[in-house]
């Protein structure tokens, strides 16, 4: 995310993100139904929106893989020597550069073929990436165990329904902020201070903040900004409808919408300074531009943040803090998405699924089925499948089309005057 990206991001957050957030949460609060039956209740002609959201939600299940990756990193964070800080490992190549190499004069601007130890740990140890999607290879049993653990936690978080998931949500959502107090923010602040003291950090910050106005004419930048807003705000996947349905009918959803969106975007903006300060440092040492240091996507959080933590005293402590916080927050996000799907399907077949025993069996079936399906994501070519679903199923055209359909259904079919009256 660069300066040329921040302008479209800010504009779309105001004119699109916040308004869609309010639309979806208020629809759920008004109908007191899941995202399938809520549209059937409000606008039968547009009930296909609910089924479209169901498909997108199922695609979003793949993000449990981020939780599995974080668990994998957490285990390695307890080692006396953090493996992504050095090149003394079996998976490292001759082009590997550890932290000691980065901080020495051995790395010059002419050495553009070097690779950081953090990148090699990610690509060769965690993912064991194959040559392409056509080479799936074998299942990585370590990641498969992490994936299994994540689905087991998900099941026992939601198997009793909203009552059980509410208790777990209280723990996972508040633990990093209430139990740890301000530790997540303190950690981000410390990482930022450490990043800003690194050589080349300000080049990264400049790349992050500089308003490249030429990029405003690039449609791809606007699409990427919209995709980021849709993802971070959880728009068009039905989660907001379901969460809104648990509110009181007269709840002030306007205030909730404003503060949640503000907190979401504000945290993302501050975290960008941490990321790009380290990217600037890595770019200077490798003699390349900032945009060539790390690609966008899930790998960024598993390369830049571990690299930054490894540069500080007590790197094990900071790595454990970061990945534990990431796991807790991703657990919350994942099982809320799964619970939203289960709630909506249950509302669709209330007589069949609303008994306690049948509900538990249905939850077990969903978790078991998707664990087996997601085993393809932990193969050697699984990252390519993940990127394919992420690019085409979870973002871009699908969510944009669904957002347009929601606005048309609410404004033209359901009716503007009726919306304002209710």
Give a nutshell description of this structure.
This protein is mostly helical and 422 residues long. It is 68% helix and 1% strand.
Order of helices and strands: HHHHEHEHHHHHHHHHHHHHH
- Total individual domains: 1
Mean pLDDT: 81
> Low-confidence stretches at least 5 residues in length (pLDDT < 50)?
105-110, 170-181
User: What is the gyration radius calculated from CA atoms?
Assistant: 22 Å
Percent of sequence in beta strands: under 5%
Question: Would you tell me the structural class of the helices and strands?
Answer: mainly alpha
Strand order of the largest sheet: 1-2
Distance between the termini: 39 Å
Annotation, overall tally of beta strands: 2
* Proportion in helices: 55-70%
The largest β sheet comes out as: 2 strands, parallel
**Any idea what the shape is?**
globular
How many separate helices?
Answer: 19
């Amino acid at each position: 995310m660069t300066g040329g990206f921040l302008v479209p991001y800010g504009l779309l957050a105001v004119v699109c993100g916040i308004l869609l957030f309010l639309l979806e949460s208020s629809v759920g609060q008004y109908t007191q139904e899941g995202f399938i039956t809520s549209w059937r209740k409000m606008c039968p002609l547009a009930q296909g929106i609910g089924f479209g959201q169901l498909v997108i939600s199922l695609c979003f299940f793949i993000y449990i893989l981020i939780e599995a990756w974080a668990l994998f990193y957490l285990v390695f964070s307890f080692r006396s020597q953090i493996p992504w800080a050095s090149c003394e490992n079996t998976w490292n190549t001759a082009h590997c550069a550890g932290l000691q190499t980065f901080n020495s004069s051995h790395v010059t601007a002419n050495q553009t073929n070097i690779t950081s130890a953090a990148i090699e740990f990610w690509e060769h140890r965690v993912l064991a990436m194959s040559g392409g999607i056509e080479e799936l290879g074998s299942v990585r049993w370590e990641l498969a165990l992490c994936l299994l653990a994540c689905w087991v936690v998900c099941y026992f978080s939601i198997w009793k329904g909203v009552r059980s998931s509410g208790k777990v949500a209280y723990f996972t959502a508040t633990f990093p902020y209430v139990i740890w107090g301000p530790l997540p923010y303190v950690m981000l602040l410390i990482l930022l201070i450490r990043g800003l003291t690194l050589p080349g950090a300000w080049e990264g910050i400049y790349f992050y903040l500089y308003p490249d106005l030429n990029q405003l004419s690039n449609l791809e930048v606007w699409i990427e900004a919209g995709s980021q807003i849709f993802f971070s705000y959880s728009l068009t996947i039905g989660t907001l409808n379901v969460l809104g349905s648990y509110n009181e009918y007269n709840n002030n959803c306007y205030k909730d919408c404003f503060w949640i969106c503000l907190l979401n975007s504000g945290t993302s903006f501050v975290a960008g300074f941490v990321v790009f300060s380290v990217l600037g440092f890595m770019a200077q040492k490798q003699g390349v531009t900032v945009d060539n240091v790390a690609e966008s996507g899930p790998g960024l959080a598993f390369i830049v943040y571990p690299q930054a933590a490894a540069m500080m005293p007590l790197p094990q402590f900071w790595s454990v803090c970061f990945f534990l916080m990431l796991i807790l927050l991703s657990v919350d996000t994942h099982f809320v998405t799964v619970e939203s799907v289960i709630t909506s399907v249950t509302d669709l077949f209330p007589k069949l699924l609303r008994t306690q025993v049948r509900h538990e069996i249905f939850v077990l079936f969903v978790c078991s089925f998707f664990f087996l399906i997601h085993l393809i994501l932990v193969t050697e070519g699984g990252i390519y499948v993940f990127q394919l679903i992420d690019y085409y199923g979870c973002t871009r055209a699908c969510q944009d089309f669904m957002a347009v359909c929601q606005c048309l259904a609410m404004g033209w079919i359901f009716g503007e005057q009726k919306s304002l009256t209710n």
